[in-house]
């Protein structure tokens, strides 16, 4: 715990050098390795990463459910878990799935939690109404559908009227209506001035409601920042349909744009093929498709038009969060089962990808 | 802390298990009283139905004695020695008590029954404590609670204390049934049920010790469930130990565990010290052997129980203090 972090009230969550190694009978498993997370206060923050990348582990460490090996964590500037009791009233969390006593009614489950934190009982009725469970308050938790369980879990977090809500895959197993409902709930909570940290695999959902995101892989932050900045980081991509695509690529590249001829061999031979195509106009007569990054559509059509190439098709396409996620986390997740091996053997990890299951002791001094 | 304790007690009361254990304790108490009833009634019945038989025996004995005395007289006359003695005075008819047995005195009966009652009550306390905590791990609600109350020490303490407190009324109910039911049986069969004031005081203390050991068992069960996470494991381990080590091995090796046997400790606690005898191993078949007397003082029994409780609670806490929870 040596990395000092300035207490910053403008940040909801700050972690530095966070590490966690699970010790099991089969050896050790590094779940989080040097995580530097920044979640600004206010708004929805998407906490993204492939399966097993350490999201739930990080959340558990923040909530004091799992001791970290090393590193520091601050919630609203308060160091946790050392001073967690001081800040816990401002944090509501659902970790992985709603967990309540199955044979107790929704009301009793919440009453027990309310009493534990000294919240008046009347609040239980209010939060149940708030999530639309007022009519089912007396039913046992066991008799609830998955969506109702999620709602009850959200109601539980509202018992504290928290400033920070941590939702770990809150839409897991919900139908589209349920997903959209949770999405609206999260957005509403954020619009009320709270901070919502949501871990989810449904990136289109996250893209719709998140103000900021962090993408992690193998226990490290791969990228974080505002959604707009992240999506815009690669620049706008424009799809261009043009005759003589080989020539067009050369012209655009000469003009300083990043152009790519789709459906052409990539790599070492690609340049040669491009040259050949450009010098033998007859081979290059068909309309081809290019992608151009970092240029406005108007600039592209003017540059090509000045050289006598007329653009037949021009479609600006924004790269989605999903695409960025997939690019960033390639080789960071679990191995993808190889289609040629029906028994589900994984393909070897991508070069450079680190194996986190080395079995050696990795915790300790930083 | 008191708030958390209240929450835990409320949670316990809302669970079915606590009512099941209470019902079981009442059943055990009723069973205990019924055994006393059966014993008393069988003695009573035998006595009533056998009056005639007893009378016949008495008459027979009278006749035999008269014959004996006559023979004795005749022998004295024949030998002229007045010291001839056939020992006819020793021919006495048995009394009803001698023939059909008597009930032990009420105080002895109580001491026996309360000691016997301690075991099922402890078992029920252990079950209550261990299921309460194991359920929290089973339903993974321990983590949820900690996101509301992140201080683990009070959470642990309240979850160990609550079953202990909740098990007390159960023990009191069972003891009350026995303490009231047994004298009622005595009176019903017109057996002497007198108990002196001093005896009542000692019985009251003994009952308190039974309540206390039930509470200790509940706390032990809860603390052990923090370690083992399954009530079945906790109960199975204890029952397994009692059966295998204390019954089977002790049967094989005699005083192998000696005073450190758990059953001995429990008896020593409940009865405020206990004594027992063993026969020396070196005893040959034809020698005149003297049994060896052993004593386990109340203080030693209390210390042993205290150490067991302390160790299990400490281990439970050390594990829970840094455990990864869902
Ligand atoms: N209790 C545990 N014991 C041992 N290893 C664990 C434990 N919990 C998690 N892990 C390991 O830690 C790594 C991170 O797990 P974690 O649950 O944090 O991932 P995640 O990002 O939440 O994944 P998902 O998207 O599937 O929920 C995984 O390799 C997992 O196998
Ligand atoms: Mg997870």
TrEMBL record, chain B:
GO terms for cellular component: plasma membrane. GO terms for molecular function: ABC-type transporter activity. Residues 40-67 form a coiled coil. Pfam families: ABC2_membrane_2. Keywords: Coiled coil, Membrane, Transmembrane, Transmembrane helix. The chain crosses the membrane at residues 12-38, 117-139, 160-186, 206-228, 235-257, 296-320. This is ABC-2 type transport system permease protein. It comes from Ornithinimicrobium tianjinense. The lineage of its organism: Bacteria, Bacillati, Actinomycetota, Actinomycetes, Micrococcales.
